[in-house]
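Quarterly update, task 2.4: zinc ion-bound model.
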Amino acid sequence: MIYTIVKYGQPVLEKKAASITEFNTPELLALVDDMFESMYAAKGVGLAAPQIGIGKRIAVIDVTSGEDPSQRLVLINPEIIAKEGAQTSEEGCLSLPTFREPVTRPQKVTIRAQKADGEVYEMTGEDLLARAFLHETDHLNGTLYISHISPLKRDLIRRKIRKLQKANEWS
Ligand SMILES: [Zn+2]
């Protein structure tokens, strides 16, 4: 099932999501599958559950956009446990369509997370994968990438979105 992506302005995007305590349930497995399907349909490389209106600590990532199924990652209750270096590149978000801004983030990031069966794993990613780990973990804490840009640029984006909302082009 393909979910509609929730856009900036919806409160669920700015709330801390709830931890997952039950693993391997049919509901959880179906949700993870649906999140991949929804992410690929939206041509994203990552999707967090709040972006489909579900306030739970689940995110999916595939930096190959579906070209290499072995690169699919499920992050349940993820935490950033190490980060180093810096990288700057343009970042976007499915919940803020059409906008992109340069964001400086750590270049190398290690996460600790759980799989859908509850198994705990650690993984280190660099460059785009490091950026995805940070962006998706941020989502689960109610933080959007525009928190990492200058207040001036953030206000400009907010003003543009308000105009789109008034024109009923943002819902
Ligand atoms: Zn996002």
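Highlight for this quarter: The radius of gyration is 16 Å.
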